[in-house]
Amino acid sequence: MPSETQAVTTTTTTVSPPGTRTGPAAPVPAPLPARRDGPGLPAPPVDPSGVFQYGFPGPVNDLRSAASLTSAFDRAKRNPHWVAEHITPSSLLMQNGDRRHSIFEEDMSIPEKFRAKLKDYFRSGYDRGHQVPAADAKWSQQAMDSTFALSNMCPQVGDGFNRDYWAHFEDFCRRLTSFYPSVRIVTGPLYLPKRDPDGKWRVSYEVIGHPPNVAVPTHFYKVIFAEDGRTGGNVSLAAFVLPNAVIHNDKPLQEFEVPVEAVERASGLEFASLLPPARRRKLCQEVSCSIIVKEYAERQRTIMTPPPQKGSPPATTLTQR
Amino acid sequence: MPSETQAVTTTTTTVSPPGTRTGPAAPVPAPLPARRDGPGLPAPPVDPSGVFQYGFPGPVNDLRSAASLTSAFDRAKRNPHWVAEHITPSSLLMQNGDRRHSIFEEDMSIPEKFRAKLKDYFRSGYDRGHQVPAADAKWSQQAMDSTFALSNMCPQVGDGFNRDYWAHFEDFCRRLTSFYPSVRIVTGPLYLPKRDPDGKWRVSYEVIGHPPNVAVPTHFYKVIFAEDGRTGGNVSLAAFVLPNAVIHNDKPLQEFEVPVEAVERASGLEFASLLPPARRRKLCQEVSCSIIVKEYAERQRTIMTPPPQKGSPPATTLTQR
User: Fold this and answer.
1) I need a labelling partner for A26 at 20 to 30 A (CA). Which of A19, A181, B199, B319 fits?
2) A229–B5: do the CB atoms touch at under 8 Å?
3) In angstroms, rounded to a whole number, what is the distance separating the alpha carbons of residues B168 and B293?
């Protein structure tokens, strides 16, 4: 019954009417042209993309554009894929927001079944770890509030990481505005493989919530774009990957530096595909990539000292040591 | 230096010129409107989405439209997210393709750093498991060939799964064309959490390749749309989730049936968001959802027998037992 079959195998890609979706509309592809099996051959008897009549399966990234951040959400892991922010010397000087007036909240723009919930974090043992830090969005209360959506959070180890080394690392990023007029930072989670005693590589991560809902990343990355302030000017790049674990403050930050490509391979994302090589500079050859734990003011003066020359570049495939 | 800063924080979202990308173009969002912090307040001092000037981070799904399948690729795990196919009584009758003439090949449309490689599978202990089976695309050699791209593969346990129970399951799907004039099947991998002895849920999966590159799914799903052949007609749905492990042939297929929503929660995808409830039917109430291992012809006659009444529906959050 080919005629009957044809009738239901249309390539029509219908989008849902307004109001039926809570998240952004799925990126339904344009109808695909009818395919022929080769010159002079009959049209194929089937239409695989006709399934789009029932909706585009996705994945959908739930792109969010807020005052303080732009992000894409991972519906399978209920964490962001990445969260991008922008800080400048003047934005950090503005002190209109206070985190005591902000509250953590679920991101209602994400469909319920893919959303991270406040109850997932409750008694999980993990912090609701900001990807874009609240302290980077003090320029308005609304901007700060928008960092408190759970779509800007991942489960992070609290003591020794989120409240310590990671916070010092965020401080390092802010201090970059002393040397660059415009700094962009993209932050997000990773789920890296580790070599087991049997010699096999395995990714293993906890999932919090009852039922399990939000993945606990094994690592976090930041890709930093420090801009020189000129249109089409130089961009000083650095990428860091830190384990979601206690890190002692005496561990040099530069030990966590990796090639941008290593973060790309691990995350499936691309961070600077449109940035010409001629405009790229290496951030950690221009400033000292190090955290400041104590004697903040004193060590602030040393940040411009170039670091010692590095050896061969690390491998671009990230695994857990 | 606000004016300098402004100059480099444009929201321009440039797409790459033709030829600079091997995969489909990233879905660069339209420029975001300038945001104001509220009525009468000054424009925000930062522009988080300005990072798009360096390229949209993604993720990009590498949508592939081939004669025999349409698929989306997971660049982080180097497996498909989903692969959709369409079979009909007449498409399965055509016998122009022979798998002995097809060869496994890497999908060159996916950027090298995100691509599954033939060498990743070599000596991994896993089969290159077709998501859309070669046997469903015998209607032309080219259609069959297009099922042999690694973007249609996942690492699958061979004996006892890919070569046995999973193959019987694929046969079940083909047999549906005896009762429905048009059958659509969406197949893909899952990475499900399992409860460890410490009471915590963890996702754990192997990654094959040196360096590790391709994730080994813990489970596979199929979402089946059996169409009645009328435009806007009824669609009989069923979803199954099978572990990537040896399954004995005497295990009833129906034990692997799950609500479609459970696959959606686990995968982060949506399969029938545009299909009105009034058009939905339950496939396994219309046909016997069971595999046939032996005495194929004899058991073929029994497939229309409705199965015994089922109890309460299973939970919609998938975990490993």
Assistant:
1) B319
2) yes
3) 7
ipTM of the complex, rounded to two decimals: 0.84
Task: Kindly determine whether residue A58 and residue B81, on different chains, have CB atoms separated by under 8 Å.
Answer: yes
Looking at the domain covering A64-300, what would its CATH class be?
A: alpha beta
The answer to whether B25 contacts chain A (CB < 8 Å) is no
List pLDDT tens digits, range A140-199.
999 999 999 999 999 999 999 999 999 999 999 999 999 999 999 999 999 999 999 999
Contact (Cβ atoms closer than 8 angstroms) between residue B313 and residue B258? no
So where are chain B's domains?
A: 1-58, 64-300
Which chain B residues are within 8 Å of A176, Cβ to Cβ?
none
> Mutation test of the interface with chain B: which of A270, A271, A275, choosing the one with the most B Cβ atoms within 10 A?
A270
Cross-chain residue pair B59–A269, CB shorter than 8 Å: yes
Question: Is B31 in CB contact (< 8 Å) with chain A?
Answer: no
Is the CB of B32 inside 8 Å of chain A's CB atoms? Answer: yes
Token digits of residue A11: 């390539």
The pTM of the full predicted model, rounded to 2 decimals, is 0.85
